[in-house]
Specification:
The protein is an alpha/beta fold and about 170 residues long. It is built from 6 helices and 3 strands; from the N terminus they run βααβααβαα. Strands 2-1-3 form a 3-stranded parallel sheet, sandwiched between helices. Its cofactor is Zn(2+).
Length: about 170
């Protein structure tokens, strides 16, 4: 069999899953979850191999390293809650967001790349289970499509609550 997987062959369409974590320094569980995802994806587990064979994973494990280093709870080195600056991130004041957003825009504009899924890992100060926020779509098919992953996660991870997920929408 060829050594290159289908999604990495020259000229092939890449199906990308983009994962970011730790935009808020105090959300330390997001680092543990992201590390667990990375450990699984590079493991010899047969499902991890299938995922690697069919998807390209782009992972930014810490969007706020300065804030983490300083011991901040929510803000960056310059006092910004980075999660509130995705709309127009400054390359000077929010360099990690700017870089990630530029990469997402480049992927969106590249006909050979299909951004299949974006996961932004956070932690919550009072919720006890894992849960997800999602977009609100008028189109029922898009709304149902985004519910597939949380439903699968609920069936396979005892610490994930689909009920908590639904109650937040």
């Amino acid at each position: 069999p060829p050594s290159a997987t289908a999604n990495l062959r020259p000229g092939a369409e890449q199906k990308v899953v983009f994962i970011t974590a730790r935009v808020h320094p105090g959300e330390t569980p997001s680092s543990f979850v992201c590390q667990g995802i990375i450990d699984f994806l590079v493991s010899q587990h047969p499902i991890a191999k299938v995922l690697r064979d069919h998807l390209v994973f782009k992972i930014a494990p810490m969007l706020n390293p300065d804030g983490v280093y300083l011991g901040n709870y929510r803000c960056s080195l310059m006092g910004f809650d980075l999660n509130r600056h995705w709309g127009n991130p400054s390359p000077w004041a929010h360099p990690t967001l700017h870089g990630v957003k530029q990469l997402i825009i480049e992927m969106y504009n590249n006909p050979k790349i299909n951004l299949e899924f974006y996961i932004d890992i956070h932690a919550h100060s009072t919720m006890m289970n894992g849960f997800m926020y999602g977009n609100i779509f008028e189109d029922e098919e898009r709304f149902q499509r985004q519910a597939v992953f949380p439903k699968l996660l609920c069936q396979n991870a005892e610490d994930f609550s689909y009920v908590s997920n639904v109650s937040l929408n």
